[in-house]
Design a protein that fits this description.
By secondary structure, the chain is α+β, with helices and mostly antiparallel strands. It is 47% helix and 16% strand. A 4-stranded mixed beta sheet has the order 1-2-3-4.
């Protein structure tokens, strides 16, 4: 009986490990803060690492190889008191391309409105139905947002439940004094409120369809069907053009995020394409994204192919 109980416990522990979805690297940088207890930053890093990587965020079972890779880098620029911290947070999310060793970037964003309280060794608590801590609300928001992006690449609109959870976190923080949760905090759409609002806005639905077709029917088949994969990626980029021409809002920051994540990759994808396809993709991209026009010009020239 004792052996049976032990076996059940081991199996339960194994299932719990496989259910965890994120493989998140955490950095806490504090060079700009002078004369403080530096040990607290290492304790904070460890607490964030445990919160992101050991929490179960979905009802699905993940193996260790399937976990979503992400990087969170906190740059603490000010510590007004022993338990109060301010700074920025850079978030990057990636997902593997099917049947390759290549990881494609889904999201690369800097949140400039980071302010939270943290008492050393105090457990990080989170409740989806209420705002209990600005730190854990920020962490959970980006966990669900990254999950939403990832699921969107495997099924059309597959990330909706996770974007809805991120939206709920925003709603719970509607009355807090910390910035980043309200539309007036950044009218150029570069904060948490606008990120999730725009992603679930029907006017931006083509961006989510782009994410699905670009990854699932484009990159994921490039290893075995490069011509078909490139053709699907080219068609998916036209969905972004549709959004660009309709201009759902004056800033369209979502498109900026897409280009920041994908510009270099797209150039490499089409480096081995035929002339007509190269010209079509180049013209669409330069219309939408003049910032990277010099990069897109290299599509028309011989360049390095994307290596899987």
């Amino acid at each position: 009986m004792r052996k049976i109980i032990l076996l059940i416990a081991v199996l339960a522990f194994s299932v719990q490990l496989e259910a965890q979805e994120l493989k998140c690297n955490i950095q806490v940088v504090s060079q700009q803060v002078q004369g403080t207890n530096k040990q607290v930053y290492e304790t904070l890093r460890n607490a964030i690492f445990e919160f992101m990587n050991n929490r179960v965020w979905t009802n699905n079972v993940y193996t260790m190889d399937e976990r979503i890779e992400c990087n969170l880098m906190f740059n603490i620029t000010d510590q007004p008191s022993a338990d109060e911290f301010r700074g920025t947070l850079q978030i990057q999310g990636r997902r593997p391309v099917y049947n390759t060793n290549y990881n494609t970037v889904l999201f690369n964003f800097i949140d400039k409105d980071i302010q939270f309280r943290y008492i050393e060794f105090q457990p990080l608590e989170f409740d989806l139905n209420s705002h209990t801590s600005n730190l854990t609300s920020i962490l959970a928001f980006y966990a669900y947002f990254l999950l939403g992006l990832d699921y969107d690449t495997f099924a059309y609109m597959g990330g909706t439940p996770y974007f809805e959870n991120a939206e709920k976190i925003v709603e719970n923080a509607n009355n807090v004094i910390e910035k980043g949760w309200k539309p007036v905090d950044d009218m150029s759409h570069k904060n948490r409120y606008w990120l999730v609002k725009d992603f679930i806005d029907q006017d931006y639905a083509p961006v989510r369809e782009f994410n699905y077709r670009y990854h699932r029917h484009g990159l994921d088949v490039m290893d075995s069907k490069p011509i078909e994969g490139r053709a699907e990626i080219a068609s998916s980029i036209e969905l972004l053009q549709k959004v660009y021409r309709s201009r759902p809002d004056p800033y369209m920051y979502i498109l900026r995020l897409v280009f920041d994540a994908k510009a270099d990759e797209i150039v490499k994808v089409f480096s081995e394409s035929f002339t007509e396809e190269k010209n079509r993709v180049h013209n669409i991209l330069t219309e939408m994204d003049q910032t990277n026009a010099s990069k897109y010009k290299s599509i028309l020239e011989d360049s390095n192919q994307l290596e899987f």
